[in-house]
Design a protein that fits this description.
This protein is an alpha+beta fold. The protein has a single domain, classed as 2,3-Dihydroxybiphenyl 1,2-Dioxygenase, domain 1, CATH 3.10.180.10. Helix content is 15%, strand content 29%. The protein has two helices and nine strands; from the N terminus they run ββαββββαβββ. The strands form two sheets. The chain has a five-stranded mixed β-sheet. Strands 2-5-4-3 form a four-stranded mixed β-sheet, with helices on one face. A hairpin with a 6-residue loop joins β7 and β8.
Length: 146
């Protein structure tokens, strides 16, 4: 099958719709915005970890440290010293490319633990962010609801 030649050139009209930026490649496994504690003075480390490594977007409109995921926001409450933690429940983050994240963590020499799930192929990465908070990285295609 071949296209028929035309005597008029085809011109693509300009798209007048407003541009919508692509969403970040990460999602929080939560039902709303997540708040975590952090000590003052580690803002650059948090930016390097959440923006540089994981792919969150920094929310520039706020005075607090806020990162935007595909679905919700991750907010940090800046404190002088970290409070005692009652729970050690990690914050779930669904990522696009599990294999690439493993490589990035190894290249940056960030310690993590691979957790095997109950179903075949289900693995998560358990690690701590620069503020000492536990996070759990899972493959977005295998995370429930994504």
């Amino acid at each position: 099958m071949e296209l028929e030649e035309t005597d008029k050139p085809f011109v693509v009209p300009a798209d007048t719709r407003p541009h919508m930026p692509e969403p970040p490649p990460v999602s929080l496994v939560a039902v709303g915005d997540v708040e975590m504690p952090a000590v003052a003075g580690i803002e650059r480390k948090l930016d390097g970890f959440y923006v540089g490594l994981l792919g969150f977007e920094r929310d520039p409109d706020t005075q607090n440290i806020v990162y935007r995921a595909d679905n919700f926001r991750l907010r940090f409450q800046i404190q002088e010293c970290l409070p005692e933690r009652d729970l050690l429940r990690p914050v779930g983050i669904a990522i696009e490319d599990y294999g690439q994240m493993l490589q990035k963590l190894n290249d940056r020499e960030i310690a993590f633990t691979v957790e095997k799930g109950l179903t075949p192929g289900q693995e998560t990465l358990l690690l701590r962010d620069p503020a000492g908070n536990w996070i759990e990285l899972s493959n977005r295609s295998l995370a429930s609801g994504f």
